[in-house]
Amino acid sequence: MAELFGWRKGAFTGATGSHRGAVERARGGTLFLDEIDKLSLQAQAGLLHLLEERRYRPLGDSDDEREADLRFIAGTNTDLAAAVREGRFREDLYYRIHVLPVHLPALDERADEIPAWAEYMVKRCAAERGAEASIAPDAQRDLAAARWPGNLRQLDNVVRRAFAFAAATAMEGAPVTVCPQHVREAMAFESSSPAPSEDVLALLRRAAAACCAALESAGSQQGFDLADAFRGLVIEAEIQRTGSVEEAFRRLGKPALLRNRNHGKTLRREIEKVMDLCRALGRPVDPALSALAGDAETSRVKSSDPRRR
User: Fold this and answer.
1) For residue 133, is pLDDT > 80?
2) Cβ within 8 Å of residue 254, ≥6 positions away
3) Closest C-alpha among 270, 276, 200 to residue 231
4) CA dihedral in degrees (137, 141, 144, 147; nearest 10)?
5) Tens digits of per-residue pLDDT, 35-89?
6) Contact 107, 151 (CB under 8 A)
7) Which whole number is the average pLDDT over 258-281?
8) pLDDT over 80 (residue 139)
């Protein structure tokens, strides 16, 4: 509260000079009280008096109270109503500040903003180094398709990391371009474990929306047919997770394909759909996909060789 109201010289031990509090410094403007839920109950009482009476007295000042001429905005990332029920937040203060509540959605709910934020962050990184930089549209789309439980702070960390990777490989004095590969390298440092509250259906819908937008941008009108590529992506993910093609097909509920030795043909067909999607988006085919398709062809030839029966 001393920081909020200020103090006079000698008001307490160590107060070697007077200090203008935040209320005085914000006179005629706006004071943002961040994480208001962290205030003690005693501090909440002092704040309530300030909001109700619009008057305050600096610590150690015996003169009349001063008038507070400012606008207040309070911020919190907790449920204040629940804090009131638990006795951690004053009910009267809650209803005093609950005048015009504004809910700021999480970054995951504002994915359309991510490309603009990423571009701003890259240019800020470049300005700090006195360089020029940009971020490729494909890299922006990759960031928009990712999940950001840490909101803008997490995005800023990833963009800074990706910029560092891009700058390390750029020619001396040349503009820095953050590409999808730099974004993938930066994202690899993030936790790969999904959050317990992760909504898989919501993620799939976001991925579908991003895919449709990317195909439209690339001028492709095969979105419905290319949607079949998801099956191949699921197979690829399970192969990477288990480290075995055969085990992947078992876990995906297709043991009959293994018994009939048709899994190689199925794998190649589904991976080729993923490769078609890459081409439609104008993206280079990942060498790992090509290798997986080649392994599938080898497996298919072996399974069809009469000498192996």
Assistant:
1) yes
2) 263, 266
3) 270
4) -130
5) 999 999 988 999 999 999 998 888 877 777 888 999 999 999 889 999 999 999 9
6) yes
7) 83
8) yes
For residue 306, the model assigns a pLDDT of 47
Six-digit token string for 43: 């501090």
Residue 28 gets the label, from left (phi > 0), alpha (psi -120 to 50) or beta, of left
Position 297 confidence tier, pLDDT thresholds 50, 70, 90: low
Helix (H) or strand (E) run with residue 161 in it: helix 151-169
Dist CA 108 CA 202 (whole Å):
10
Tell me the range of 54-58, 97-101, 256-260 where mean pLDDT is highest: 97-101
CB count in 10 Å sphere of residue 296: 22
For the chain, the farthest-separated pair of C-alpha atoms sits apart, in whole angstroms, at 103
Q: Residue count of the chain, please give it.
A: 309
Tell me if 261 sits within 8 A of 298, measured CB to CB: no
Using an 8 Å Cβ cutoff, are 273 and 279 in contact?
A: no
* DSSP state, residue 211: H
Orientation of helix 229-242 relative to helix 263-280, angle to 10°: 120
Q: Check if the beta carbon of residue 282 is closer than 8 Å to that of residue 238.
A: no
The two structure tokens encoding residue 92: 């009267």
CB atoms within 10 A of CB 133: 20
Q: Which of 88, 206, 92 is nearest to 144 (CA)?
A: 206
| Range with the poorest average pLDDT among 113-127, 156-170, 287-301 | 287-301
Which tokens in the block code for residue 272? 């080729």
